[in-house]
Amino acid sequence: MRSIGVKRHTVCQVCHAACDLVVEFDGDVPVRLYGDKNNAAYRGYSCIKGRQSAAYATAPERLLQSRKRNAGGDHVPVGSQQAVAEIAERIGEIVALHGPRAVACYVGTHGYNNFPAHAYADAVLAALGSPMMFNAVSIDQPGKAIGLALHGPWLAGTPPIARWESLLLVGTNPIVSMNGGLGVNPAARLHEARKRGLKLIVIDPRVTEVAAQADVHLQVRPGEDPAVLAGIARVMLTEGLYDADFVGAETVGLAELRDAVAPFTPELAAARAGIAADDLVRAARLFASGRSGAVSAGTGSNMAGHSNVTEYFVKVLTTLAGFWLRAGETIGNPGVMVNRAPAIAASPGPFPAIGYGHKMRIRGLEETPAGLPTATLAEEILMPGEGQVRALLVLGGNPMAAWPDQEKTYAAMRSLDLLVCFDPVMSATGRLAHYVLAPKLGLETTSTTMHNEMFGNFGPGWGYEEPYAQYSGPLTQPPPGSDLVEEWEVLHSIGRQLGLELRLRDWSIPDPVAARQAGTDLDMTGTPSADDVWRMITRHSPVAVDVVKGCGESGHVFDRPALVVQPRPADWTGRLDIGNPILLAELTSVLAERDVELDASYPFRLISRRLHDVVNSCWHDAPKIGARVAGNGAFLHPDDLAMLGLQDGAAIDIVSRVAHVAAIVRTDPSVRRGCVSMSHAWGGNPGEDDDPAVRGGNTGRLVPVDREYDAMTGIPRMSAIPVRLHAR
Ligand SMILES: Nc1nc2c(c(=O)[nH]1)N[C@H]1C(S)=C(S)[C@@H](COP(=O)(O)OP(=O)(O)OC[C@H]3O[C@@H](n4cnc5c(=O)[nH]c(N)nc54)[C@H](O)[C@@H]3O)O[C@H]1N2
Ligand SMILES: Nc1nc2c(c(=O)[nH]1)N[C@H]1C(S)=C(S)[C@@H](COP(=O)(O)OP(=O)(O)OC[C@H]3O[C@@H](n4cnc5c(=O)[nH]c(N)nc54)[C@H](O)[C@@H]3O)O[C@H]1N2
Ligand code: SF4
Ligand SMILES: [Mo]
Questions:
Q1: CATH, domain 66-139+372-437, list 3.40.50.740, 3.40.50.720, 1.20.1260.10, 3.40.120.10
Q2: This prediction's pTM
Q3: Backbone φ and ψ of 633, nearest 5°
Q4: Which of 50, 229, 385, 530 is 20 to 30 A from 168 in CA distance terms?
């Protein structure tokens, strides 16, 4: 019999949702992880990925030492101190020879959520004088930032889920992905809301976990969200189903909006999307029938083209329905670790989406509120000339698996003078790197809920509705004999060795410029402790991080007074803009697009999706996980399989206009006919064994970066990709 000892708590760091996990120990060994039923925000929620997170630490593929590529091309163990010294020296040489822009950093999903490391990476690049700080947002949901900028934020925010009477989800499946829309523990929140009478409308080519519960599911042809959302707006406007008082008082651009959506009759929008016009009208009426509610879109809509228009209409529909908090209403979460916008029922108005930031050398693209366009980085590396990127630091990301245009990425990664990955395994990118720095994992480090609280700024159903936070120190020691580093420590050492003066941003301040200004100048004569770093990056938090820590290591709802929304001051000039000329012109351009009729040589559309058991390219082979996700299935409707003469389990080639990948087909009646539903971030590097039953196909390989890309953010078409299928 096993003696179960202490129960501790940690913030799960496997995805952004930051669940509170109970960790049961047998001696020093964590033996069981599960959600905490007493946790007020998550109420016992956890998923297999988190419950297996202790097993990742002892997984066979985990690196216990950093690796360095030797002259023969093999990766051999290297001491972390030696690796840091060599990397710093190399960066110094590259900057001296080619200037600071030659050094770039890409912050992937496991860097984006790691605020100490993210703050340090920002600081190192800034101190070097390099503007080349990239992250995954511009290949994820970049339309969110653009739509928000051009519509303008509503300072008071959105009503709490408990009050929603209607919810429109567009190309997102939060029950599986934890994407915004339903808050933390989304399945429970949806269940309760449905019991209360919430009307759910889902727009998705697949009968997803959320679509299966919808009152109206528009099972659309992919790539047609702009037309469908414009069609819904038109129904609301023509039938008078909008909040005329709110729109009259708080917006500009109604006439322009009316004109732009006029052509999108239910018949036209429905024909484009391959749905019934009556269903579209029903969806619009049901959505508008709620006195309170929300709209949220996800990666599907952001990857299928015209993402800025789609996300703009997410805001426009919210505004037409009047689904914003008003004066006198309350905001349940005044912020714990992150500051929120002032509680005023007003908008400061739109702000610029382009024309203020760093310019790329590629396709005229530039910095936007979604960050630098990551879809240009491979070419920034490959294209000779002044400013060419020669060194890349990859923080918790995997460009070879996740970036679009895998062949181009492959050429770029191999041409770098210095490629450094911070990664616990030899990822596809790591296999091409000069150095792979092996980090400590979740249970071995301090973890907090700060990133998820910050995501509360992304839109309704993100972050926490309660003043909730958690701070858990390290619970386990790294495996004996290992030489592991925290990412921020490495970046600190690199900064020290290069003689840089680092300033850490304050993550409690959402605006990045203000966050840097309010940051802390580091004392570079020594190395801070992890607690010190957390203190610095939470310097202006509403509740001091030591107070959060002092509440114990489990999640806690703080006794903070709710905010009462104040009326807009009389002289306030900002208004929401529902008639942005650039995006409405882009909507009009959709009318002229011919690809509603599928190109006969590419009759299928490959659409993106998430798998329940893995996050992106992470831990596909871990114990228990590997057995559950055998390869990267290509899910097709059974009638399409029959038409192609294929059986479930058959090996196929998926051919796009630029490349092909192998996959195993899976029969799935929930997928719309004509679609292939397949996850990203699988597969090896070009030339590596790509047995589809093992590694699975890499959908990014099918995507060119330089065709059908977004003119502002550069995101190429990563869903609704035209393809054809052949038996292998
Ligand atoms: N075709 C297509 N392409 C897509 C998408 C799609 O839907 N379709 N989705 C896009 C989206 S939304 C995103 S966010 C990007 C993701 O892009 P990336 O962030 O570049 O890819 P990930 O696979 O998330 O990379 C995570 C890496 O972090 C490593 N890792 C795991 N745990 C840790 C840790 O604790 N510390 C550190 N340092 N590293 C860790 C993993 O081994 C892995 O190599 O991909 C995008 N690409
Ligand atoms: N389990 C798990 N959770 C994850 C991840 C994971 O890999 N696994 N990844 C994490 C990351 S990095 C992110 S960004 C989030 C993303 O979170 P979500 O955006 O919710 O991602 P998905 O679950 O893929 O949902 C996208 C949906 O869009 C649909 N879709 C595809 N094309 C179109 C289209 O043209 N129009 C419409 N309307 N729908 C379309 C797909 O069928 C799919 O159901 O999830 C995060 N959480
Ligand atoms: S949903 Fe995300 S944070 Fe929660 S247990 Fe699963 S992997 Fe961890
Ligand atoms: Mo993502």
A1: 3.40.50.740
A2: 0.98
A3: -60, 145
A4: 50
